[in-house]
Amino acid sequence: MIPPRLVPLLEQFDFARERLTARLTGPVMDSGDGSDTEVRPMTDAEYFWEPVADCWSVRERAAGPGPRATLLAGAGPWGRDAAAYPHPWPPPVTTIAWRLSHLGEMIALRADHVAGSRTLTREVHPVPGSASEAVAAFDAATAAWHAALLGADDTALDTVGYSSYPHGSDPQDVFVDVVWWVNQELLHHGAEIALLRDLYRARPR
Question: At what angle do helices 131-150 and 96-115 cross, to 10 degrees?
Fold first, then answer.
């Protein structure tokens, strides 16, 4: 059985991931009041769209990092703009490509460090180079995290270091706090991605 205190967190996560996928792929999404809103699938042009100058994004590795970035995170022919601490200030505006890549990676790696090999790092995680690849990677990551949560009992929720994800505070946190953190990451980055979709649609032609 799912621990009662995990149920609302799992339901929130599932609703947010399904709504974001629909917001990216269509043909419709839940508008929030039970009615369907038409959605056009995200294109590669929109995926890489930079609403202002000097955005951080996903780039071909051969091209090198973008403005104020010092490296391209991830593996494969594409990488995501990044920099070692301290990060640039003010923070760069990031594209849908950057945000969706970040979300997919963070969730996939946490799933691995809860119910997988517990070995994956962002250095070996491939960065999607197209909108369709990014959506598929996001869907796979969120499905893996959902499955990992189904294996967590009350003892696991109270266990410090139940998630050994190496790019956050997970090894020092009780697992229920990690679950909450993943939800807020999905909710706030999902809202940012949805706003960028609106801005792209309304951009001057």
Answer: 30
